[in-house]
Amino acid sequence: MSETEKDGLLVSFLMLGASLQSLMGGAWLLIIGSLAMGLRVTFARDDRRAVAATAVACVLWFLLHLAVTRALTRFQVTVEVGTFSAFVMFFWVVRQINRERLLAEQRRMEETRQGGADLEVKLRQLRRDSDTMAWESEELTRLFGVTKSVGEVIREEEIVDVIRETAQTYLKLPAYVLLLARDGAIRIRAQMGFDEAVLADAAFPPAGGNLAAWFLLQREPVLVDDLSGDPRFADAMFPYRSLVMLPMLVQDEPAGALVAFDARPRSFTRQDYTRAGILAKQLSLGIGKTLLYGKIEELSITDGLTKLYRHRHFQERFEIELERARRYGRPLSLLMSDLDHFKRFNDHFGHLEGDAVLKHVSRVMEANFQRPTILARYGGEEFAVLLPDTGKERAVELAERFRSDLEATPLASGETRPPVTISVGVAAFPADAQTRRDLIARADLALYRSKHDGRNRVTVFDASMEGKPGPTGPSGTTGPSGTT
Predict the structure, then answer these.
(1) DSSP one-letter code for 173
(2) SS3 state of residue 421
(3) Neighbouring residues of 324: CB distance < 8 A, sequence distance ≥ 6
(4) Please, is 73 exposed, middle or buried when counting C-beta atoms within 10 Å of its C-beta (0-12, 13-18, 19+)?
(5) Which of 65, 133, 226, 377 has the greatest count of CB atoms below 10 A from its CB?
(6) 256 near 181, Cβ under 8 Å?
């Protein structure tokens, strides 16, 4: 039913009451008006239109009533006025009740809308919290993966691989440089996103104005949103815009730094800084563990007195280098040497002085032979030098230089001591032997010839030495072992 039909229904009831009022008086008005008002209130929600329609109907009825009756007695006037007043009062009460009902409904609807809006806000917040928790869970999973990887490594090569993977998968930055403090210098151990020819085997001094030293000295992560606006990097020619630097400290001392770059500016947050600090500590633990393992491994393979390789490790490295030389057709030379009259020196000056002589020999060896040469204390006063990628002629030159430097270099002791001299035998692969055992045997034969011919000399193996008697060394080969 439309609003117009509802208002027409109200007027019709009122007019019907007017036509019958002569029979029943004003009571019909109250009855019909009440019924009409009840219907109007029931069907209508628009309070103002209900008031207007009812008021117009009442006025029309009153005018019609006056026209019909023309003259009223005082009693009739009193009844009609009372009836009309009662109707007006009734209408006003019903209108107030209806208004309160409408206001209550509006309040409930507003509360419902507000509740829905609040629920929508809470739902959005829950979604944001859920996304944040999912992201943090993913971050923790990746960080746990880094921690797990760090916990599984013990060698430097392994931790370098972990750091490389961390830069690519955890930080997700397109370029990085891994700096490690080694042997009194800062070396680039791994990198991505830079010219390999420029950074290959690069090393920087640990002090001075170079940027690598500055990175290494930082004890907290460094996050730079825009390098172009940071005066610390004004002179740096980085082809990148933002930077994340993770310091690696071992026992509170700088051991390395991972410097990662992005091609675009970033807006790093405090949370990013916190995660960077956690990651730096994890990588520092890995670096510290590899350093500790390296020291333990070094103690197990190096002689405690001379710091040269022990006999067993030397044999292992010898086999590896010989196989490499055989595979790539490269030369390899071996020097076997023995101190002259060392037993007599020990008996005359004591074993402490004898230890000082052994240390002295190792220092002169390290000064004369550079990497990738492999130096070893072969046993007692015997020393071995393995020279990868070195032919026999060059090996003889190096051996003679070492022998003469040792003879010319006095002991560090304040007292006068006779010069330390050494006898050396030289053999080479593939000219003299094809196997490790045969190469050692032939270098031992050359050494024995040096001893036999007066000591303090270098002798090169030749086939004429085969079959001649000589002392038996600790390796089971013929040579000067045990000869002083």
Answers:
(1) -
(2) coil
(3) 330, 388
(4) exposed
(5) 377
(6) yes
Domains, the chain: 3-115 (no CATH), 156-301 (3.30.450.40), 311-465 (3.30.70.270)
> Looking up tokens 């020619």, which residue turns up?
237
Structural tokens at position 105: 């409904």
* 198-222: pLDDT as tens digits: 565 677 887 767 888 888 888 899 9
From 43, 29, 41, 49, select the one nearest 93 (Cα to Cα): 41
Q: How far apart are CA 418 and CA 421, in angstroms?
A: 9
Q: Which amino acid is at 73?
A: T
* Integer Cα distance of 348 and 285 in angstroms: 50
For 429-437, the CB contacts below 8 A with 24+ separation are 429/322, 429/325, 429/326, 429/331, 429/332, 429/333, 429/334, 430/325, 430/326, 430/331, 431/392, 432/392, 432/461, 435/322, 436/315, 436/318, 436/319, 436/322, 437/477
Beta strands in 404-478 (DSSP E): 422-429, 458-460
**Which residues are within 8 A (CB) of 27 and not within 5 positions of it... i.e. 6 or more apart?**
83
Tokens of 24: 């029943």
CA 396 – CA 390 distance, rounded (Å):
10
Per-residue model confidence as pLDDT tens digits over 54-102: 666 666 666 656 655 555 566 666 766 676 677 667 667 766 777 788 7
Residue 147's CB is within 10 A of a number of other CB atoms, namely: 18
- What gap in Å lies between CA 387 and CA 333, rounded to an integer? 5
Which stretches of 25-73 are DSSP H helices? 26-43, 47-69
CA separation for the pair 443, 434 (Å, rounded):
13
Strand, coil or helix: what is 262? strand
DSSP-assigned letters across all residues of 232-246: GGTT---S-SEEEEE
With a CB cutoff of 8 Å and minimum separation 6, the contacts of 96 are: none
Q: Which has the closest alpha carbon to 94: 56, 29, 21, 44?
A: 44
Of the chain, the percentage scoring pLDDT greater than 90 comes to 28
Q: Which SS3 state, helix, strand or coil, does residue 79 take?
A: helix
